[in-house]
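Quick start: what a row looks like.
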Amino acid sequence: MKKVLALLLAVLMMASVLVACGGGSNNSSNSNSSDTSKSDGDPFHGEDNIKLTVWAADKAIDVTKELCDEFKAQYPDKKIDITVQVQGEGDAAAQVLNDKDAAADVFSFACDQLNRLIAANALAPVYTVDAVTARNSEASIAAGTIDGLLYAYPETGDNGYYLVYDKSVVSDEDAKTLEGVLAACKKANRKFVLDAGNGFFSCMFPFTGGMTIEGIKDETQQFNDYNEDEVVDTLEAFAKLFHEYSDIFMSAEATKISTGMAAATRTVAAGVDGSWNAAAVADALGDDFGAMKLPTINVGGTDKQIISMHGYKLIGVNSHSKFPEAAQLLADYLTDEAAQLKRAQVLSWGPSNNNAVKDASVTGNVALAAILDQSQYSVAQVNIADTFWSPMGTLGNTLWKDADFSRDTIKKNFEKTIANIKDE
């Protein structure tokens, strides 16, 4: 009898160990596995009376609401309440990390924020990895992946900037060079807009000089082995142009471009604009809408192509969501082919989806074609330290603001910028 009891006890102990190890539970939210099928046949796996909050950019609010309504309509047997709120992608990570429990269940963010969100354990890995990977570009998947795990769903493949211009003022030939653009604007007494104090835009100045980012090591931003003299020469070329055309050069948010191009004002003739404003500029200019990759700038007698930063918008699921299954399903729906096509058609946002990018509404879009062209001359917006942005923005401001823009001063400001990025 003692032997039988001992055997029974051993069996019970083994069963308890298996349960404790998760043998009977679903760990798909932590495994990053593409196989999340379960035997109950319910894609929500028991979740009901679902309440989700979604954060989206202000320009995408209406489209996002429409997509969320379509999502709910697919599941009439489920009680689903979705609240869509405005939250810019550029500040999404900061807002999530401020209070993960109060943050949105599903939110859009720029890909350079991925490191911060993962470090803070704020993102639940993607469930359906194989499907999401198969339908999106390799670069967009890489932008959402850290240490082999996919943490976010690609939403767009166009998070960059390009040249927009009023074709009644700036000709296509003028648009090929920065000198030509500025001269045409001056002749018409119209403004050229560039947000020189924003690190996302101002990084184009040293990038054009040959500097690139090389990831993060020991929490410090790394750069390539650039030629400092070449970078400083390029910064000086930009500074000279900004001062030469100081009467028409305007450092301001990109939104000032579309408002300044509106028929009622027409105070702006050209600018460096973000992909997210493409529809607004096109509406403002109508048949006069011009779009092209960024122009060249003459540095010491050589025309150099201006190099931009290019990234991706991603949609993530808050790891603290009370409805993780529903949140994953919604994030997947908001980033599938149909959703990306709707954004392309309504907002002129470029898709990352392999099929959507071939659609006529995308290939025939002048703005998206220009952004795609510029992406060939860009630095990827991934693995960027938080300390990169502010000093880079300050550098941009010094180029057009400082009365002293001698080469020595520019060199000191550049060296100070790099030191601040690495030391902050």
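That is the whole record. The longest helix spans residues 2-20. The radius of gyration is 25 Å.
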